[in-house]
Design goal:
The complex is a heterodimer. Chain A is an all-beta fold. Chain A contains no helices and eleven strands. Chain B has no helices and eleven strands. In chain B, strand 7 and strand 8 form a beta hairpin. Classes of the chains: A mainly beta, B mainly beta.
Amino acid sequence: QKEVEQNSGPLSVPEGAIASLNCTYSDRGSQSFFWYRQYSGKSPELIMFIYSNGDKEDGRFTAQLNKASQYVSLLIRDSQPSDSATYLCAVNVRGYQKVTFGTGTKLQVIP
Amino acid sequence: DTAVSQTPKYLVTQMGNDKSIKCEQNLGHDTMYWYKQDSKKFLKIMFSYNNKELIINETVPNRFSPKSPDKAHLNLHINSLELGDSAVYFCASSQGHSGNTIYFGEGSWLTVV
């Protein structure tokens, strides 16, 4: 089982819709969760991080964490073509000195 | 000013050659990393240094040798390059090494022919 799993996509949504990106992780000791966005040919950049169960909102982005289900998601409201990118989920396990990345989900927002 | 800068951005070289990639960060972070992203876009950690001390070495072939002269610099030297080494290599940094935000450089595109 992979440590961090994501559907590779592509996930296609129409402009203005809500895009829902999902990530599951295998280690119950995980305590820090990150969403990075990577445009084609560019480096990953942090969108959001979340540490506690529940929702965390930042503008059009909402991160949702459910530790019991070992599941973290990213919702993008009012999706824009500029949101088209690969979204990487990343997880840090308590006591471990590294952040593990998923393989990413490619999002396409159709105008 | 670029927070994490790495050079060169593009590198095309022949099999068997030795090459280096340099990285510098001006964020004042104490931890630096090298990540490799392959053609399938999987981003995998190779090395991590905290205050010049190696703390992560993810079973990378010993042809890869990182070197951290100070906490703002982390270079990567690769000996006897192989076709499979072709990838994008990202340098990154963070404050601490246990789950803080990682800031990436722009990447170095290495092609081995």
